[in-house]
């Protein structure tokens, strides 16, 4: 299962940048705005929700509760949002806003213009930082229960030279 999660992470990591940067009306200038004004608040909100859920749910229920919104979103994006991108992106409104506000607001207006791609970008970023990290540490915590037997001789070996000197 960890292989599948890392495989998805690799695909999402490569796709998110290409999707956002090459979209019509967007450029590489959008990425700092996305990371600061969209990704950071969503990551903070997600970690607050995760900390509340971790107090209430078992480890297995927490895993499924965390991973389900990601799977649901990526399924929705692939089958609904991406095919309807021309109908759901407010291109005319973004053009009017850009004309009124000027080129210095290209980043924030581009986020509005391609909002579904930006949401994909943020969910892909969260997949990498949340799902991979949380699952890794969950796995590491499970492994560490029986790991002490192998670590204890190492600790003794590392402290032995200080006793000799």
From TrEMBL:
Keywords: ATP-binding, Chloroplast, Membrane, Nucleotide-binding, Plastid, Transmembrane, Transmembrane helix, Transport. It is a multi-pass membrane protein. The chain crosses the membrane at residues 30-50, 62-84, 104-123, 130-151. The keyword Membrane applies. Pfam families: TLC. GO terms for cellular component: chloroplast membrane. GO terms for molecular function: ATP binding; ATP:ADP antiporter activity. It is found in: Membrane; Plastid, Chloroplast membrane. InterPro entries: ADP_ATP_car_bac_type (IPR004667). Belongs to the ADP/ATP translocase tlc family. PANTHER family: ADP,ATP CARRIER PROTEIN, PTHR31187. This is ADP,ATP carrier protein. It comes from Aegilops tauschii subsp. strangulata (Goatgrass).
